[in-house]
Amino acid sequence: MKKFLSALLAAVMITALFSACGEKTPKNKNIHTFYFKDKSKSEEAVATFFNSKSGKTENVEMTKTGEDKDTTTFSCEGDTSKYNMAYVTYDGIRSNNFAFNKCVSGWYNCDGGFMPYTEGEKISYKYKHKDVKFKFNGYDKTVHIWTPDDYDASSKKKYSTIYLLDGQSADINEPPVGHTVAETECSAAQVKSMMKMTGEKAILAAVETDGDHNSNGSFTRDDELIPNLGKMAHEEGVSKKLGNKFADFMAKTVAPYIEKHYNVYTDARHTAVEGTSLGGLGAFIIAMDHPEKFGTAGIMSPSFWTY
After folding, report:
1. How far apart are CA 298 and CA 273, in angstroms?
2. Which residues does 168 contact at the CB level (< 8 Å), separation at least 6?
């Protein structure tokens, strides 16, 4: 569930990287057209918009705007100044909650679960990415790097960079066979939608943080993501507390490589780091230790209980 929440809320976090988030001059700048694509081909759907802080809600009957042999598409409008979350009810089924903002086009009810998608574009959750290995603490650390299909290495307008922790969990691609959307963030699909909506560009660097596979698990995820802040509040001694060392690795090894080999901004304003659970704690420490490098942090369900 924490991974699912991360998927839905990361969309909000990443908007901080984009300077002009929104559609082209609507009558009301806060009104956003939301799409729901349904593989079960329901006859009707209702969107419930709500404010997670005030509790205010609004039900809107969605209009059927398209249909093919595989899916039915519905749409409606919502006010992003009033609501930040939503869910859809169709065939008596209530979906999970998801982020509602002007940077995500719509959500797709498909075999893999609820996926973000961009209306009007071909849907695919398989994205090519490059794998690069670095040495951390004496062992290999893999980073999965995704660039948009139209990535331009020589364009004058540079790309923002979003660093994802727990990159071993299919952060970029669709869920593996037998898994659900709750076990992946589908980050490339989210960013692809946001780029379409905003005109801004970004790349992803998903960093594996599941320890050392080459020495019988001598170093674990707990070791890599928990910092050394003194005495732990829970299970003292189970972590080698390499979190600060890992933060240095992100700022002084991974980020410089990305900045050298890709057409990206190098300032903190256009650089984000995101993680969930222990990854949320890791993202917090990385941003706190290196604010000159990471200006935005997506800290989802962080494991602050460790201290």
Report:
1. 6
2. 142, 208, 209, 210
Which two structure tokens, joined as six digits, stand for 148? 């948009």
Side-chain half-sphere exposure of 170, counting CA atoms within 13 A? 18
Distance of CA 110 to the CA centre of its chain: 19
Say whether pLDDT at 75 is over 90.
yes
d(CA 187, CA 14): 10
Q: What are phi and psi of 246, to 5 degrees?
A: -65, -35
The dihedral through the CA atoms of 265, 15, 295, 10 has a sign that is: negative
| pTM of the full structure | 0.83
Q: What is the pLDDT of residues 250-270, one digit of tens each?
A: 999 999 999 999 999 999 999
Distance CA 296, CA 15 (A): 10
Side chain identity at residue 142, one-letter code: T
How does DSSP assign the chain, residue by residue? -HHHHHHHHHHHHHGGG-SS-S-S--SSTTEEEEEEEETT--S-EEEEEE-TTT--EEEEEPEEEEE-SS-EEEEEEEETTT-SEEEEEETTEEPPPEE-STT--EEEEETTEEEEE-TTS--------EEEEEEETTEEEEEEEE--TT--TT-SS-BEEEEEE-GGG-SSSPPPTT--GGG---HHHHHHHHHHHHS--EEEEEE--S--TTTTTSS-HHHHH----SS-SSSTTS----HHHHHHHIIIIIHHHHHHHS-B--SGGGEEEEEETHHHHHHHHHHHH-TTT--EEEEES--GGG-
